[in-house]
Amino acid sequence: MQIGPRIPRIKAAGSDGWEIVYRARALVAAGEHVLNLTIGEPDRTTDPRVLTAMHEAAMGGLTGYTFGPGLPELRRAIAARVTERTGVATRPESVIVTPGGQAALFAAHMVLLSQGDTGLYITPHYPTYPTTILATGAEAVSVAASAEAGFQPKAEAILEAQARTGARSLLINTPNNPTGVVYTPETVAGIADACREANLWLISDEVYDTQIWEGAHHTPRALPGMEERTVVIGSMSKSHAMTGSRLGWIVAPDEVVEAATVLATNTTYGVVPYIQKGALAALELGPDFEEEIAAPFRRRRALVQAAVAGSDKVSTAPAAGAMYVMLDIRETGISGEAFARRLIEEERIAVMPGESFGAAAAGHLRVALTLPDADLSEAVTRIVAFAEGL
Ligand code: PLP
Fold this sequence. Notes:
43% helix
């Protein structure tokens, strides 16, 4: 029996950047010590207060189906947080709770695109971006943000790609995975102008919005005329160290939330109710808790910058946010892929080659700031020495 063509189409377009991740896992399984800087996951477990709230909710009987867009109290808390953080008055009806940010990205694109459409995304990109767009049946077209431009996307490039393809949507991400770049107010304004001019839906992935080391987070939804065409993706994974809980959301115009609710009825049936109660408890811990989760990444980003300072072979892209730093190794003359392959074999250090996030990140390495400080410093110091010895 043959399966249908949809998933093979997604798989064929998928990144092979996992090669280093699998190699690191195999080495560890064989008993070797590997400094692993590949995985974008907080290196701490979910806070006991959050787990207790989940436990109490479950023991209290909240174990049944939860139809619809989420528990009213959680939608209220998310709406209040968005209002407070962005200044855009946001109603609970504008929020749907999803099983993680990835499911929110999928739902947003399913609602906005279908076969025959085109969805744009900025590259370097989080690897599921093109495949999430392809999953809807639409075509996925990248718009490059170049290293020379500090990985800030340009409005002209978006408009050119839209004119060429007739695209209906654009997917952006700030603070950015993989580059660690935070879009400037000018970049965000340019994106908003392009979306209004070309009548594009904007899907704004803001799952790293609590991880800002320089400047501020600017959401395009706050700009004039953008609320009605912007779909914001949020998640508890990175901001509250809750990756395994699978709790994210969409903030969007009512018609998008209603359509995503129909989709949920036909896929997930909503999000586990006691997990939603845990998310509510986590949000109630407030901004101090979010800062506590972000603090190690802020510290480690400084350690990476110190370790590469003075090197003429390795530098960093402007690392203003998110739990990653992009190392620019173009001066070594070898590709990110070749560098990463040699690094794991010769140094037992695992990093993601820039190329696995698109050609716009060629000659770079993505370092996740998820190892203890001393291990991270050692790893980056050895990466610099390796680059200089090439
Ligand atoms: N968006 C970006 C840019 C990410 O880096 C990730 C995870 O690494 C996600 C979305 C999905 O995260 P989650 O589904 O855990 O919320």
